[in-house]
Amino acid sequence: MAKRIGKRTVRLEQKIGVIGYGAVVGKKEHEGPLGQEFDAFSDDNRFGEVSYEKAESRLQTLSVDTAVSKAGLEIGDIDCIFAGDLLNQCIGSTFGLRSTERPVVGLYGACSTMTLSLCMAATMLESGAAKTAVAVTSSHFCSAERQYRFPLEYGNQRTPTAQWTTTASGALVLTQGVGSVYIDEYCIGQIVDLGVTDQNNMGAAMAPSAADTLCHYFEDTGTTPEDFDLVFTGDLGQVGTDLLYDLVAEQGYALRCRHSDCGLLMFDREKQDVHAGGSGCGCSAAVLASYVMHRFEDGTFHDVLFCSTGALLSPTSVMQGESIPGVTHLVHLKGKK
Amino acid sequence: MAKRIGKRTVRLEQKIGVIGYGAVVGKKEHEGPLGQEFDAFSDDNRFGEVSYEKAESRLQTLSVDTAVSKAGLEIGDIDCIFAGDLLNQCIGSTFGLRSTERPVVGLYGACSTMTLSLCMAATMLESGAAKTAVAVTSSHFCSAERQYRFPLEYGNQRTPTAQWTTTASGALVLTQGVGSVYIDEYCIGQIVDLGVTDQNNMGAAMAPSAADTLCHYFEDTGTTPEDFDLVFTGDLGQVGTDLLYDLVAEQGYALRCRHSDCGLLMFDREKQDVHAGGSGCGCSAAVLASYVMHRFEDGTFHDVLFCSTGALLSPTSVMQGESIPGVTHLVHLKGKK
Asked: Which pLDDT tens digit goes with each residue over B111-136?
């Protein structure tokens, strides 16, 4: 049985292990600093499909296939798939997973969805309701831009605080008791709203929720950032990362020397014109399902906190003058010592 | 520990009981056949807010408050909230639950979301990761019409197969071991696509997935519809219901005499001009959190299958010529014998 530690943290009794992972990205992501870490990429942003939306679905299909194959399984061996994306009505996941004939749990947490997906998959495995599960998310720059902002053809200018939605999908296969990396604990986040209204500054909208979840976790478990090899955030970018350092410092935690942000890892900000960094719920998913897993396997990492961060807005809510709350979910990943 | 029965069904070991429920609806729903069953309604479709979207969030806040209060709890006693709605980026849930300061799991399964929410809440309770959880969904006719179809002011005509999105929210409070109604088993559905492309015929899009999940359940458990007081579907309406009877009959099950559809219960089709019936993920939620719970309490029901049904489309996917897959999740509810 899982146990609640303190106010928010859940400690799992079973070892919920990662037995397969796959990360598939677009051309720009392949040209970035992590390019060699990913399983596959395409020079064609439509991935051979007729629309960017269908391309995003294709990304999910590919990352799931890769992860399941690396686990030495077939899709029919998977008991449940936990999936989400940024498109309206999570339609990328629907079409990406339509042909699997597996039970699907649709999730939405904006860019926090990958960690939410891991939390829910781990919960189902811990409960005994499944023996194997897949967690997957995706995002696509072109489908996100035209849905949230403007058609690409409009060529609008981006502000310095804007982030670049990552074209990527990452998938993990989880099971009980096996795997070189396992989920030891998790924290489901609350919705945190400090009143940010600038939809071109997602970092500022998400940082307060990242601070909230991290500080709850540190308090619940009596740990500090120094107890971990690294604390990853999803996609705060440079603006959100700087804010996060200030917010956790107010609560007495020094994060700077033990922190890395997937949105900053994904692109070279000097050369790739992504402004404050990468974003999108495929960003943290692809970094987790490649770079982070590889560093566990080569022994660099033993103990990592992984927190995807989400900005809870819709084009309608922004037009109606609503603020942009954030939500951050956390998993504590452990490797072989 | 939960156990997997057959291919899809999960049997829970803990008694995951309902200890509180709340249903809040709009004016038209209050005037329907179930009007007296609901906890609250408003003559004003904006529920005192400035937009239909904010009204939908208000519905969620009200139904959760009612359910938690009936459970004799305060919102701070709830370990986790499982929530979803039909609005882009599940924004109704975000703003409806923003002030709760509780961990929130965002879910998306279109009109199947209430049952998905119950499945995930029950899984978390079974795993020990939470002691109390809330499952809640909402929908609003006016916010859904302008998002999925046309602004209300356009006054477009509706086809005979069209359904009326219910303005409603339903919430259940769940816990371990207590409650007059409990979740005994559940089935997470797969995405089923028989190629329906008419977005004004949701019943036809959803019926194949309802048949798939129900037949999987009957096969896994060796039961037939006669073993239950009633089998509820979410919102197939008249068109989808007739199709469901045919589809399950092909697999040897006679459903007609033991079936009820929340979309048909919600409105009086003769008098209320809703065409094929009600829909929306607040529809099955509100019927469950009122009529179904009341019939368990007065001893009419002892054993019920409850399946919310969802049509997985987005306005973009329809415009891109994609078909409309369905998904159906199921819970088996038991009362005191």
From this structure: 999 999 999 999 999 999 999 999 99
Q: Contacts of residue A51 in chain B, CB cutoff 8 Å?
A: 320
Q: Is B190 on the interface with A (CB under 8 A)?
A: yes
Among the partner-chain residues A109, A110, A190, the one whose CB lies closest to the CB of B102 is A190
Residue A49 binned pLDDT confidence (cut-offs 50, 70, 90): very high
HSE-CB for B241 with a 13 A CA cutoff? 23
Pairwise CA distance, residues B336 & B296, whole Å: 8
Q: Kindly indicate the confidence band of residue A184, based on its pLDDT and cuts at 50, 70 and 90.
A: very high
The three-state secondary structure class of A52 is helix
Mean pLDDT (chain B) is 97
Question: Would an 8 Å CB–CB cutoff place A233 in contact with chain B?
Answer: no
The model's confidence at residue A299, banded by pLDDT at 50, 70 and 90, is: very high
CA angle in degrees (0–180, nearest 5) for A169-A170-A171: 130
> If you count residue pairs, one on A and one on B, with CB atoms under 8 Å apart, how many are there?
178
pLDDT band at residue B337 using 50, 70 and 90 as cut-offs: low
With CA atoms as reference, report the closest residue to A137 among A158, A108, A165, A180.
Answer: A108
Task: Give residue A177's pLDDT.
Answer: 85
Q: Please give the distance of CA B41 from its chain centroid, rounded to a whole number.
A: 18
What is the pLDDT averaged over residues A74-98? 98
Nearest CA in chain B to A213: B103
Q: Which residue has the tokens 């490649």?
A: A290
Name the pLDDT band for A337 (thresholds 50, 70, 90).
low
Mutation choice for A interface testing from B8, B117, B123 by most A CBs within 10 A: B123
Contacts of A131 in chain B (CB under 8 A): 4
pLDDT of residue B156: 86
Establish if A327 touches chain B: CB-CB under 8 angstroms.
yes
Residue with tokens 């987005």: B314
Min Cα–Cα distance to chain A from B331, Å: 14
Point out the residue among A91, A123, A129 whose CB comes nearest to the CB of B129: A123
Residue A170 class from Cβ within 10 Å (0-12 exposed, 13-18 middle, 19+ buried)? Answer: buried
Please, what is the end-to-end C-alpha distance for chain A in angstroms? 24
pTM confidence score: 0.98
DSSP B154: G
Q: What are the Cα distances from residue B85, in Å, to A159, B38, B59, B82, B97?
A: 32, 19, 11, 11, 12
**In this structure, what are the phi and psi dihedrals at residue A122, rounded to the nearest 5 degrees?**
-65, -40
Q: Mind telling me how many Å the CA of A23 is from chain B's nearest CA?
A: 23
CB-based contact (8 Å) between A312 and chain B?
A: yes
Looking at residue B220, its pLDDT comes to 98
With an 8 Å Cβ cutoff, are A191 and B314 in contact? no
Percentage of chain A beyond pLDDT 90 is 96
pLDDT band at B33 (very low <50, low <70, confident <90, very high): very high
**Segment 28-57 of chain B within 8 Å of chain A by CB:** 51, 53-54
Q: Cα dihedral sign for B135, A173, A266, A250?
A: positive
User: Mutate which of A105, A113, A196 to test chain B, going by most B C-beta atoms within 10 A?
Assistant: A105
Cβ–Cβ below 8 Å for B79 and A4: yes
Residue B138, classed as helix, strand or coil, is strand
Please count the residues of chain A: 337
